[in-house]
Design goal:
By secondary structure, the protein is α/β, with parallel strands linked by helices. Helices cover 36% and strands 20% of the residues.
């Protein structure tokens, strides 16, 4: 699991501009970021934006073989953006990058992306106004907001602007990836699925029943919601934060063991006495439901 990291929007770029070498980061033709300095003139080469940024991205196919998502990352801190771009590429997805709000809006309006990852505080145009502008134009591309502003009022403002999810900094890349993949799945027709099955475990949303090996398993309403979320994301690690938000509707950590208690109860009903355990703990990350250890 990627370790959590803290990003203050634009801080890395500002620090580099203030340094003796006056260096900045820019995307190279293959989407990896390299340091670019002009020691003779003492000027920084700005991160590529606008048409030049589009040209740079166009010079190299950023898509990984077997890629499943097109993701637009709008982030002015180029070190953080490099980390995110690299992570999405390694996960088999197709990242594109914009370094400011105006360029990001231009890209989002001119191409079809599966998910947008938008920093809240951006030069030229802030992230919330980008999302609001897209919604006004009828574009419903799922958008996840990244921000160092993590109070409840900040999250509410982000969601009301049209954002679909809100991830405060610091965060682990594994959680960002999991949340983006969930948003992409929600936007597909598969969201209408009513029956989920993993190995011999079956959950029917319409009849509100759960069976394993053909035997009925009675669950309490919260246990059913928890199992449903795990099965919707089968094979993917879901974090404690995701469970609190999607199963308990909490947008803060209540500092209780409520998740551990419910996972323990669910295991006792789903896995006890079974040859194959389906609910697994991923140390330091969260939980995953899969049919192998």
């Amino acid at each position: 699991m990627a370790r959590p990291f803290t990003v203050a929007p634009g801080r890395a770029y500002q620090q580099r501009m203030a340094g003796p070498a006056r260096c900045a980061m820019r995307p190279d033709p293959c989407g990896i970021f390299q340091e670019a300095c002009d020691p003779t003139e003492g000027r920084s080469q700005q991160p590529a934006t606008g048409a030049r940024n589009r040209a740079i991205i166009g010079e190299c196919d950023l898509r990984t073989k077997g890629a499943t998502m097109k993701v637009l990352i709008i982030e002015d801190d180029v070190e953080a953006a490099a980390f995110i771009v690299k992570g999405f590429r390694e996960a088999g997805h197709t990242p594109s990058y914009a370094a400011d709000g105006e360029t990001g809006l231009e890209y989002a309006m001119s191409d079809d992306f599966d998910v947008l990852v938008v920093d809240r505080m951006l030069p030229k145009r802030d992230g919330l106004s980008i999302i609001a502008a897209l919604r006004e134009q009828g574009r419903q591309t799922p958008a996840l907001i990244l921000s160092a502003l993590g109070e409840v009022d900040d999250r509410v403002a982000g969601l009301r602007s049209g954002g679909d999810d809100y991830l405060p900094k610091p965060y682990a890349f594994s959680e960002l990836l999991a949340r983006v993949e969930v948003l992409a799945r929600r936007a597909t027709p598969g969201e209408a699925q009513t029956v989920y099955q993993v190995a011999d475990l079956e959950l029917d949303r319409l009849s509100h029943t759960v069976k394993r090996g053909g035997d009925d398993i009675p669950l309490q309403p919260r246990e059913f919601r928890l199992l449903e979320f795990l099965m919707k994301n089968a094979g993917q690690v879901v974090t404690r934060t995701m469970l609190l938000e999607k199963v308990w509707d909490y947008h803060f950590d209540p500092q209780t063991n409520v998740i551990d208690v419910h996972i323990s109860r669910l295991r006792a009903k789903i896995d006890k006495g079974q040859d194959t355990q389906l609910i697994h703990t991923v140390r330091g990350a969260g939980y995953v439901l899969r049919d192998q250890a």
